[in-house]
Protein backbone atom coordinates (compact mmCIF):
# COMPACT_ATOMS: atom_id res chain seq x y z
CA UNK A 1 0.00 0.00 0.00
CA UNK A 2 1.49 3.31 -1.13
CA UNK A 3 1.03 5.88 1.64
CA UNK A 4 2.76 8.77 -0.10
CA UNK A 5 0.36 11.71 0.14
CA UNK A 6 2.05 13.55 -2.71
CA UNK A 7 1.68 10.83 -5.35
CA UNK A 8 0.10 11.84 -8.63
CA UNK A 9 -3.68 11.25 -8.82
CA UNK A 10 -5.14 9.24 -11.68
CA UNK A 11 -7.41 12.13 -12.68
CA UNK A 12 -4.37 14.31 -13.40
CA UNK A 13 -3.99 12.34 -16.67
CA UNK A 14 -4.96 14.44 -19.67
CA UNK A 15 -7.60 11.88 -20.65
CA UNK A 16 -9.44 12.60 -17.38
CA UNK A 17 -8.78 16.34 -17.40
CA UNK A 18 -10.46 16.63 -20.80
CA UNK A 19 -13.59 14.89 -19.45
CA UNK A 20 -13.94 17.06 -16.37
CA UNK A 21 -17.12 19.10 -15.97
CA UNK A 22 -16.55 22.34 -14.07
CA UNK A 23 -19.36 24.29 -12.37
CA UNK A 24 -20.72 26.94 -14.73
CA UNK A 25 -22.87 29.89 -13.63
CA UNK A 26 -23.52 31.24 -17.12
CA UNK A 27 -27.00 29.74 -17.06
CA UNK A 28 -27.88 30.84 -13.54
CA UNK A 29 -26.82 30.17 -9.93
CA UNK A 30 -24.68 27.09 -9.37
CA UNK A 31 -26.54 24.39 -7.45
CA UNK A 32 -24.84 22.21 -4.82
CA UNK A 33 -25.50 19.12 -7.01
CA UNK A 34 -23.09 20.58 -9.58
CA UNK A 35 -20.35 20.75 -6.94
CA UNK A 36 -20.93 17.84 -4.56
CA UNK A 37 -21.86 14.27 -5.48
CA UNK A 38 -25.58 13.86 -4.72
CA UNK A 39 -26.56 11.23 -2.14
CA UNK A 40 -27.52 7.82 -3.51
CA UNK A 41 -28.01 4.13 -2.75
CA UNK A 42 -27.25 0.96 -4.72
CA UNK A 43 -24.23 2.52 -6.46
CA UNK A 44 -20.73 1.11 -7.03
CA UNK A 45 -17.38 2.58 -6.02
CA UNK A 46 -13.66 1.86 -6.21
CA UNK A 47 -10.51 3.52 -4.86
CA UNK A 48 -7.52 4.12 -7.13
CA UNK A 49 -4.58 5.56 -5.23
CA UNK A 50 -6.07 8.31 -3.06
CA UNK A 51 -9.22 8.87 -5.14
CA UNK A 52 -12.72 7.41 -4.71
CA UNK A 53 -14.64 6.79 -7.97
CA UNK A 54 -18.45 6.58 -7.76
CA UNK A 55 -21.00 5.56 -10.41
CA UNK A 56 -24.70 4.74 -10.63
CA UNK A 57 -27.36 4.05 -8.04
CA UNK A 58 -30.56 5.97 -7.43
CA UNK A 59 -32.05 8.59 -5.12
CA UNK A 60 -35.42 9.94 -3.98
CA UNK A 61 -36.65 12.97 -5.90
CA UNK A 62 -39.38 15.08 -4.28
CA UNK A 63 -41.21 15.49 -7.58
CA UNK A 64 -40.52 12.27 -9.48
CA UNK A 65 -39.99 9.73 -6.71
CA UNK A 66 -37.22 7.17 -7.30
CA UNK A 67 -34.78 8.44 -9.93
CA UNK A 68 -31.65 6.78 -11.36
CA UNK A 69 -28.39 8.73 -11.23
CA UNK A 70 -26.95 9.89 -14.56
CA UNK A 71 -25.49 6.91 -16.38
CA UNK A 72 -22.77 8.89 -18.20
CA UNK A 73 -21.50 10.59 -15.05
CA UNK A 74 -18.63 9.54 -12.77
CA UNK A 75 -17.86 11.41 -9.55
CA UNK A 76 -14.38 11.35 -7.99
CA UNK A 77 -13.58 12.30 -4.39
CA UNK A 78 -10.21 13.09 -2.83
CA UNK A 79 -10.06 13.32 0.95
CA UNK A 80 -6.74 15.17 1.03
CA UNK A 81 -7.80 17.69 -1.60
CA UNK A 82 -11.21 17.97 0.12
CA UNK A 83 -13.22 18.02 -3.08
CA UNK A 84 -15.51 16.23 -5.48
CA UNK A 85 -14.94 16.37 -9.24
CA UNK A 86 -17.45 15.41 -11.93
CA UNK A 87 -16.51 13.64 -15.18
CA UNK A 88 -18.36 12.54 -18.30
CA UNK A 89 -16.20 9.76 -19.82
CA UNK A 90 -16.19 9.16 -23.56
CA UNK A 91 -17.86 6.21 -25.24
CA UNK A 92 -20.93 4.23 -24.30
CA UNK A 93 -21.74 1.03 -22.53
CA UNK A 94 -23.33 1.88 -19.22
CA UNK A 95 -27.09 1.87 -18.53
CA UNK A 96 -29.04 3.27 -15.60
CA UNK A 97 -28.87 0.62 -12.89
CA UNK A 98 -28.69 -0.07 -9.18
CA UNK A 99 -27.54 -3.06 -7.17
CA UNK A 100 -24.67 -3.84 -9.56
CA UNK A 101 -21.35 -5.32 -8.47
CA UNK A 102 -17.93 -4.11 -9.59
CA UNK A 103 -14.25 -4.94 -9.43
CA UNK A 104 -10.93 -3.90 -11.00
CA UNK A 105 -8.97 -5.84 -13.63
CA UNK A 106 -6.44 -3.18 -14.46
CA UNK A 107 -6.82 -0.90 -16.32
CA UNK A 108 -10.56 -1.61 -16.42
CA UNK A 109 -13.23 -1.03 -13.81
CA UNK A 110 -15.84 -3.70 -14.53
CA UNK A 111 -19.51 -3.26 -13.55
CA UNK A 112 -21.76 -6.32 -13.80
CA UNK A 113 -25.45 -7.16 -13.39
CA UNK A 114 -27.90 -4.98 -11.45
CA UNK A 115 -31.46 -3.79 -11.75
CA UNK A 116 -32.72 -1.64 -14.62
CA UNK A 117 -36.03 0.16 -14.92
CA UNK A 118 -37.40 -2.86 -16.80
CA UNK A 119 -36.02 -5.54 -14.48
CA UNK A 120 -32.90 -7.54 -13.63
CA UNK A 121 -29.92 -7.61 -15.96
CA UNK A 122 -26.69 -9.51 -16.60
CA UNK A 123 -25.05 -6.81 -18.74
CA UNK A 124 -21.35 -6.00 -18.37
CA UNK A 125 -19.62 -2.73 -19.09
CA UNK A 126 -16.25 -1.34 -18.12
CA UNK A 127 -14.49 1.99 -17.70
CA UNK A 128 -10.94 2.25 -19.02
CA UNK A 129 -9.22 4.10 -16.19
CA UNK A 130 -6.32 5.25 -18.39
CA UNK A 131 -8.35 6.67 -21.28
CA UNK A 132 -11.51 7.63 -19.33
CA UNK A 133 -13.70 5.73 -21.80
CA UNK A 134 -16.86 3.67 -21.28
CA UNK A 135 -16.94 0.34 -23.14
CA UNK A 136 -19.71 -2.23 -23.51
CA UNK A 137 -18.67 -5.86 -23.04
CA UNK A 138 -20.59 -8.56 -24.94
CA UNK A 139 -19.85 -12.07 -23.62
CA UNK A 140 -19.22 -14.90 -26.06
CA UNK A 141 -21.69 -17.75 -25.57
CA UNK A 142 -24.14 -18.17 -22.70
CA UNK A 143 -24.12 -15.82 -19.72
CA UNK A 144 -25.33 -16.04 -16.12
CA UNK A 145 -28.98 -15.30 -15.40
CA UNK A 146 -29.97 -11.65 -14.68
CA UNK A 147 -29.59 -10.64 -11.02
CA UNK A 148 -28.75 -7.83 -8.63
CA UNK A 149 -27.37 -7.53 -5.08
CA UNK A 150 -24.61 -9.99 -5.90
CA UNK A 151 -20.89 -9.69 -5.08
CA UNK A 152 -17.75 -9.83 -7.22
CA UNK A 153 -14.00 -10.12 -6.84
CA UNK A 154 -11.13 -10.53 -9.30
CA UNK A 155 -8.29 -13.04 -9.55
CA UNK A 156 -5.82 -12.45 -12.38
CA UNK A 157 -7.98 -12.03 -15.52
CA UNK A 158 -11.14 -13.61 -14.08
CA UNK A 159 -14.07 -11.97 -12.29
CA UNK A 160 -16.01 -14.16 -9.87
CA UNK A 161 -19.69 -13.55 -9.07
CA UNK A 162 -21.46 -15.25 -6.17
CA UNK A 163 -25.16 -15.42 -5.40
CA UNK A 164 -27.63 -12.58 -5.84
CA UNK A 165 -31.35 -12.09 -6.35
CA UNK A 166 -33.02 -12.19 -9.73
CA UNK A 167 -34.82 -13.96 -12.51
CA UNK A 168 -35.18 -17.72 -12.71
CA UNK A 169 -32.34 -19.23 -14.83
CA UNK A 170 -33.41 -20.25 -18.35
CA UNK A 171 -32.04 -22.60 -20.98
CA UNK A 172 -29.95 -19.77 -22.45
CA UNK A 173 -28.09 -19.22 -19.17
CA UNK A 174 -25.20 -21.18 -17.71
CA UNK A 175 -26.68 -23.32 -14.97
CA UNK A 176 -25.98 -26.68 -13.32
CA UNK A 177 -29.35 -28.07 -12.29
CA UNK A 178 -27.67 -30.67 -10.03
CA UNK A 179 -25.32 -28.32 -8.18
CA UNK A 180 -26.70 -24.78 -8.38
CA UNK A 181 -29.57 -23.78 -6.10
CA UNK A 182 -32.33 -21.31 -6.87
CA UNK A 183 -34.86 -20.45 -4.12
CA UNK A 184 -37.97 -18.84 -5.52
CA UNK A 185 -39.53 -16.06 -3.44
CA UNK A 186 -43.03 -17.11 -2.35
CA UNK A 187 -46.16 -14.98 -2.37
CA UNK A 188 -45.31 -13.08 -5.54
CA UNK A 189 -46.41 -13.63 -9.12
CA UNK A 190 -43.05 -13.07 -10.80
CA UNK A 191 -40.39 -15.78 -10.97
CA UNK A 192 -37.58 -14.32 -8.91
CA UNK A 193 -35.49 -15.49 -6.00
CA UNK A 194 -32.08 -16.15 -4.45
CA UNK A 195 -29.09 -17.93 -6.00
CA UNK A 196 -26.00 -19.68 -4.62
CA UNK A 197 -24.20 -19.97 -7.97
CA UNK A 198 -20.48 -19.21 -8.28
CA UNK A 199 -19.52 -18.24 -11.83
CA UNK A 200 -16.46 -16.61 -13.39
CA UNK A 201 -16.14 -14.22 -16.31
CA UNK A 202 -12.82 -14.46 -18.17
CA UNK A 203 -11.94 -10.95 -19.31
CA UNK A 204 -9.48 -12.28 -21.91
CA UNK A 205 -11.83 -14.66 -23.72
CA UNK A 206 -14.97 -12.76 -22.60
CA UNK A 207 -16.73 -15.99 -21.67
CA UNK A 208 -18.69 -17.13 -18.60
CA UNK A 209 -18.08 -20.48 -16.91
CA UNK A 210 -19.25 -22.22 -13.77
CA UNK A 211 -16.64 -22.70 -11.03
CA UNK A 212 -16.16 -26.15 -9.55
CA UNK A 213 -15.59 -26.03 -5.79
CA UNK A 214 -15.17 -28.44 -2.91
CA UNK A 215 -16.40 -28.24 0.66
CA UNK A 216 -19.64 -26.85 2.06
CA UNK A 217 -20.68 -23.77 0.10
CA UNK A 218 -22.82 -20.93 1.48
CA UNK A 219 -26.59 -21.02 1.16
CA UNK A 220 -28.20 -18.88 -1.54
CA UNK A 221 -28.24 -15.21 -0.57
CA UNK A 222 -28.33 -11.61 -1.78
CA UNK A 223 -27.18 -8.24 -0.43
CA UNK A 224 -24.28 -10.05 1.24
CA UNK A 225 -20.64 -8.94 1.37
CA UNK A 226 -17.39 -10.36 0.01
CA UNK A 227 -13.81 -9.29 0.57
CA UNK A 228 -10.66 -10.78 -0.87
CA UNK A 229 -7.59 -11.05 1.37
CA UNK A 230 -4.61 -12.43 -0.55
CA UNK A 231 -5.63 -15.91 -1.82
CA UNK A 232 -8.88 -16.19 0.11
CA UNK A 233 -12.32 -14.59 -0.10
CA UNK A 234 -14.55 -14.07 2.94
CA UNK A 235 -18.35 -14.00 2.61
CA UNK A 236 -20.59 -12.61 5.36
CA UNK A 237 -24.33 -12.29 5.87
CA UNK A 238 -26.98 -11.52 3.30
CA UNK A 239 -30.65 -12.35 3.01
CA UNK A 240 -32.35 -15.62 2.10
CA UNK A 241 -36.17 -15.49 2.12
CA UNK A 242 -37.18 -13.98 5.48
CA UNK A 243 -33.81 -14.45 7.20
CA UNK A 244 -30.78 -12.14 7.27
CA UNK A 245 -27.80 -14.30 8.08
CA UNK A 246 -24.68 -13.83 10.24
CA UNK A 247 -22.51 -16.68 8.95
CA UNK A 248 -18.93 -16.19 7.76
CA UNK A 249 -17.47 -18.38 4.98
CA UNK A 250 -14.01 -18.58 3.39
CA UNK A 251 -13.16 -19.70 -0.14
CA UNK A 252 -9.56 -20.77 -0.75
CA UNK A 253 -8.65 -19.35 -4.17
CA UNK A 254 -5.89 -21.90 -4.77
CA UNK A 255 -7.87 -25.10 -4.17
CA UNK A 256 -11.34 -23.50 -4.53
CA UNK A 257 -12.45 -25.17 -1.32
CA UNK A 258 -15.21 -23.72 0.83
CA UNK A 259 -14.70 -23.71 4.59
CA UNK A 260 -18.33 -24.05 5.60
CA UNK A 261 -19.57 -21.68 8.30
CA UNK A 262 -16.48 -20.58 10.26
CA UNK A 263 -16.36 -20.68 14.06
CA UNK A 264 -15.00 -17.29 15.14
CA UNK A 265 -13.63 -16.02 18.43
CA UNK A 266 -15.64 -13.44 20.33
CA UNK A 267 -19.19 -12.27 19.85
CA UNK A 268 -19.81 -11.40 16.21
CA UNK A 269 -22.18 -9.11 14.34
CA UNK A 270 -25.88 -9.89 14.17
CA UNK A 271 -27.42 -11.05 10.90
CA UNK A 272 -27.76 -8.40 8.24
CA UNK A 273 -27.97 -7.49 4.57
CA UNK A 274 -27.05 -4.36 2.60
CA UNK A 275 -23.84 -3.96 4.65
CA UNK A 276 -20.20 -3.65 3.59
CA UNK A 277 -17.08 -5.61 4.53
CA UNK A 278 -13.80 -4.10 3.35
CA UNK A 279 -10.12 -4.87 3.79
CA UNK A 280 -8.33 -2.06 5.60
CA UNK A 281 -4.84 -3.55 6.07
CA UNK A 282 -2.92 -6.81 5.72
CA UNK A 283 -5.01 -8.87 8.14
CA UNK A 284 -8.08 -6.88 9.16
CA UNK A 285 -11.40 -6.20 7.48
CA UNK A 286 -14.06 -3.71 8.57
CA UNK A 287 -17.80 -4.44 8.59
CA UNK A 288 -20.16 -1.47 8.61
CA UNK A 289 -23.93 -1.00 8.94
CA UNK A 290 -26.66 -2.78 7.04
CA UNK A 291 -30.25 -3.87 7.66
CA UNK A 292 -31.08 -6.24 10.51
CA UNK A 293 -33.44 -9.18 10.80
CA UNK A 294 -35.68 -6.98 12.96
CA UNK A 295 -35.96 -4.42 10.12
CA UNK A 296 -33.64 -1.90 11.77
CA UNK A 297 -31.00 0.18 10.02
CA UNK A 298 -27.64 -0.51 11.68
CA UNK A 299 -24.82 1.87 12.64
CA UNK A 300 -22.33 -0.49 14.29
CA UNK A 301 -18.70 -0.92 13.28
CA UNK A 302 -16.84 -4.26 13.51
CA UNK A 303 -13.35 -5.51 12.76
CA UNK A 304 -12.46 -9.08 11.79
CA UNK A 305 -8.90 -10.37 12.11
CA UNK A 306 -8.73 -12.99 9.36
CA UNK A 307 -5.62 -14.64 10.83
CA UNK A 308 -7.13 -15.37 14.25
CA UNK A 309 -10.77 -15.28 13.06
CA UNK A 310 -11.58 -12.87 15.86
CA UNK A 311 -14.40 -10.33 15.78
CA UNK A 312 -13.94 -7.03 17.63
CA UNK A 313 -16.66 -4.43 18.13
CA UNK A 314 -15.09 -1.04 17.39
CA UNK A 315 -18.23 1.00 18.02
CA UNK A 316 -21.77 -0.08 18.87
CA UNK A 317 -23.52 3.14 17.83
CA UNK A 318 -21.74 5.52 15.47
CA UNK A 319 -24.87 7.73 15.12
CA UNK A 320 -24.32 7.44 11.37
CA UNK A 321 -26.61 4.59 10.21
CA UNK A 322 -26.16 3.32 6.69
CA UNK A 323 -27.45 0.56 4.42
CA UNK A 324 -26.72 -0.17 0.74
CA UNK A 325 -23.68 2.11 0.86
CA UNK A 326 -20.16 1.52 -0.48
CA UNK A 327 -16.86 1.25 1.40
CA UNK A 328 -13.39 1.37 -0.21
CA UNK A 329 -9.88 1.75 1.22
CA UNK A 330 -7.57 4.26 -0.43
CA UNK A 331 -3.81 3.94 -0.80
CA UNK A 332 -3.14 5.70 2.50
CA UNK A 333 -5.23 3.39 4.68
CA UNK A 334 -8.40 5.48 4.91
CA UNK A 335 -11.65 3.53 4.63
CA UNK A 336 -14.05 5.80 2.74
CA UNK A 337 -17.75 5.01 3.22
CA UNK A 338 -20.04 6.84 0.82
CA UNK A 339 -23.77 7.17 0.28
CA UNK A 340 -26.37 4.72 1.42
CA UNK A 341 -29.83 4.98 2.94
CA UNK A 342 -30.12 6.59 6.38
CA UNK A 343 -33.67 5.48 7.24
CA UNK A 344 -35.80 2.36 6.84
CA UNK A 345 -35.65 1.68 3.11
CA UNK A 346 -38.61 -0.75 3.29
CA UNK A 347 -40.94 1.68 5.08
CA UNK A 348 -43.27 2.68 2.24
CA UNK A 349 -44.88 5.35 4.43
CA UNK A 350 -41.67 7.42 4.52
CA UNK A 351 -39.59 8.62 1.56
CA UNK A 352 -36.10 7.17 1.31
CA UNK A 353 -33.33 9.40 2.64
CA UNK A 354 -29.93 8.95 0.99
CA UNK A 355 -26.63 10.36 2.21
CA UNK A 356 -24.08 12.36 0.24
CA UNK A 357 -21.52 12.30 3.05
CA UNK A 358 -18.17 10.52 3.13
CA UNK A 359 -17.46 8.73 6.42
CA UNK A 360 -13.88 7.81 7.30
CA UNK A 361 -12.50 4.92 9.33
CA UNK A 362 -8.79 4.71 10.13
CA UNK A 363 -6.89 2.30 12.38
CA UNK A 364 -3.58 4.17 12.65
CA UNK A 365 -2.36 7.78 13.04
CA UNK A 366 -1.77 9.97 9.99
CA UNK A 367 1.81 9.92 8.73
CA UNK A 368 4.14 12.80 9.60
CA UNK A 369 4.50 13.60 5.89
CA UNK A 370 0.75 13.86 5.48
CA UNK A 371 0.30 16.06 8.53
CA UNK A 372 3.15 18.31 7.42
CA UNK A 373 1.62 18.84 3.98
CA UNK A 374 -1.70 19.83 5.51
CA UNK A 375 -0.01 22.20 7.97
CA UNK A 376 1.71 23.88 5.02
CA UNK A 377 -1.62 24.26 3.28
CA UNK A 378 -3.41 25.65 6.33
CA UNK A 379 -0.58 28.17 6.87
CA UNK A 380 -0.28 29.06 3.16
CA UNK A 381 -0.54 32.87 3.62
CA UNK A 382 2.79 32.73 5.45
CA UNK A 383 4.36 29.70 3.78
CA UNK A 384 3.44 30.27 0.14
CA UNK A 385 6.77 31.93 -0.71
CA UNK A 386 8.67 28.84 0.50
CA UNK A 387 6.74 26.38 -1.67
CA UNK A 388 9.19 26.74 -4.55
CA UNK A 389 11.97 25.32 -2.37
CA UNK A 390 10.06 22.10 -1.65
CA UNK A 391 10.63 18.86 -3.57
CA UNK A 392 8.63 18.82 -6.79
CA UNK A 393 6.11 16.18 -5.72
CA UNK A 394 5.22 18.13 -2.55
CA UNK A 395 5.00 21.39 -4.48
CA UNK A 396 2.70 19.73 -7.00
CA UNK A 397 0.41 18.51 -4.22
CA UNK A 398 0.08 22.01 -2.76
CA UNK A 399 -0.59 23.47 -6.19
CA UNK A 400 -3.24 20.82 -6.86
CA UNK A 401 -4.83 21.63 -3.50
CA UNK A 402 -4.90 25.31 -4.39
CA UNK A 403 -6.34 24.61 -7.85
CA UNK A 404 -9.07 22.48 -6.29
CA UNK A 405 -10.26 25.53 -4.39
CA UNK A 406 -10.70 28.02 -7.20
CA UNK A 407 -12.00 25.42 -9.68
CA UNK A 408 -15.03 24.77 -7.52
CA UNK A 409 -16.52 28.25 -8.19
CA UNK A 410 -18.85 27.64 -5.26
CA UNK A 411 -21.04 30.08 -3.37
CA UNK A 412 -21.94 27.58 -0.65
CA UNK A 413 -19.57 25.39 1.33
CA UNK A 414 -20.34 21.99 2.79
CA UNK A 415 -18.53 19.65 5.11
CA UNK A 416 -18.18 16.55 2.94
CA UNK A 417 -16.27 14.13 5.19
CA UNK A 418 -16.85 13.05 8.78
CA UNK A 419 -14.58 10.91 10.92
CA UNK A 420 -16.46 7.82 12.11
CA UNK A 421 -13.55 6.07 13.80
CA UNK A 422 -9.86 6.90 14.24
CA UNK A 423 -7.94 10.22 14.17
CA UNK A 424 -10.04 13.33 13.69
CA UNK A 425 -10.18 15.00 10.29
CA UNK A 426 -9.46 18.28 12.05
CA UNK A 427 -5.80 17.21 11.84
CA UNK A 428 -6.06 17.61 8.07
CA UNK A 429 -7.15 20.60 6.00
CA UNK A 430 -10.59 19.06 5.49
CA UNK A 431 -13.53 21.42 5.95
CA UNK A 432 -15.59 20.70 9.07
CA UNK A 433 -19.16 21.84 9.89
CA UNK A 434 -18.20 24.83 12.05
CA UNK A 435 -15.68 26.03 9.48
CA UNK A 436 -18.22 25.70 6.68
CA UNK A 437 -20.76 27.71 8.66
CA UNK A 438 -18.25 30.53 9.19
CA UNK A 439 -17.34 30.65 5.50
CA UNK A 440 -20.99 30.63 4.42
CA UNK A 441 -21.80 33.41 6.89
CA UNK A 442 -18.95 35.53 5.54
CA UNK A 443 -20.23 34.94 1.99
CA UNK A 444 -23.71 36.06 3.03
CA UNK A 445 -22.26 39.15 4.71
CA UNK A 446 -20.30 40.04 1.57
CA UNK A 447 -23.36 39.56 -0.65
CA UNK A 448 -25.51 41.70 1.65
CA UNK A 449 -22.84 44.42 1.69
CA UNK A 450 -22.73 44.41 -2.12
CA UNK A 451 -26.52 44.67 -2.27
CA UNK A 452 -26.41 47.63 0.12
CA UNK A 453 -23.84 49.35 -2.10
CA UNK A 454 -25.97 48.73 -5.19
CA UNK A 455 -29.03 50.12 -3.39
CA UNK A 456 -27.12 53.24 -2.31
CA UNK A 457 -25.88 53.71 -5.86
CA UNK A 458 -29.42 53.42 -7.24
CA UNK A 459 -30.75 55.87 -4.66
CA UNK A 460 -28.11 58.42 -5.63
CA UNK A 461 -28.93 58.02 -9.33
CA UNK A 462 -32.49 59.29 -8.69
CA UNK A 463 -31.24 62.72 -7.55
CA UNK A 464 -30.28 65.51 -10.06
CA UNK A 465 -27.43 68.00 -9.69
CA UNK A 466 -29.69 70.39 -7.74
CA UNK A 467 -30.37 67.79 -5.13
CA UNK A 468 -34.01 67.44 -6.16
CA UNK A 469 -35.11 63.81 -6.67
CA UNK A 470 -36.52 62.77 -10.01
CA UNK A 471 -40.20 61.90 -10.12
CA UNK A 472 -40.36 58.12 -10.31
Structure notes:
This protein is mainly beta and 472 residues long. It has a domain at 37-361: Neuraminidase. The protein is built from five helices and 34 strands. It has helices spanning 14-17, 368-378, 380-383, 392-407, 433-461; strands at residues 20-21, 44-48, 51-55, 58-61, 65-68, 74-78, 83-87, 90-91, 101-105, 108-116, 119-128, 133-137, 147-148, 151-155, 158-167, 182-184, 192-202, 207-210, 214-216, 225-229, 232-236, 239-240, 243-244, 248-252, 257-259, 272-273, 276-279, 284-292, 297-305, 310-315, 326-329, 335-338, 358-361, 417-421. Strands 13, 14, 15, 16, 17 and 18 form a six-stranded antiparallel β-sheet that branches. It has a five-stranded antiparallel β-sheet with strand order 1-7-6-3-2, with no helix packed on it. A hairpin with a 4-residue loop joins strand 29 (297-305) and strand 30 (310-315). The N and C termini lie far apart (72 Å).
Amino acid sequence: MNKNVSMKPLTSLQSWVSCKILPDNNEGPITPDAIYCPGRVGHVAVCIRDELFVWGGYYQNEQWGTVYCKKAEVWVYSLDRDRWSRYFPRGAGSRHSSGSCSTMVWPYWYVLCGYLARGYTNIIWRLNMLTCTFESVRPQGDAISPRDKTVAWALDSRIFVLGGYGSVPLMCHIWDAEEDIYVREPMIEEDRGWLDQLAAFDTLTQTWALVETRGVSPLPRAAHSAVRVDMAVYIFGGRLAGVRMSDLHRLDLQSFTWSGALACNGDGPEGRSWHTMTRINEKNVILMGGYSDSNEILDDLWMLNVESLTWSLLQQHTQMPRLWHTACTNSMGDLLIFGGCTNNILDIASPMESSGDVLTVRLEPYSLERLSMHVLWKSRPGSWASWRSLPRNFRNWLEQREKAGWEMNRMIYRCQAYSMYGPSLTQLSVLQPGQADLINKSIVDIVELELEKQKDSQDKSTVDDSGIPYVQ
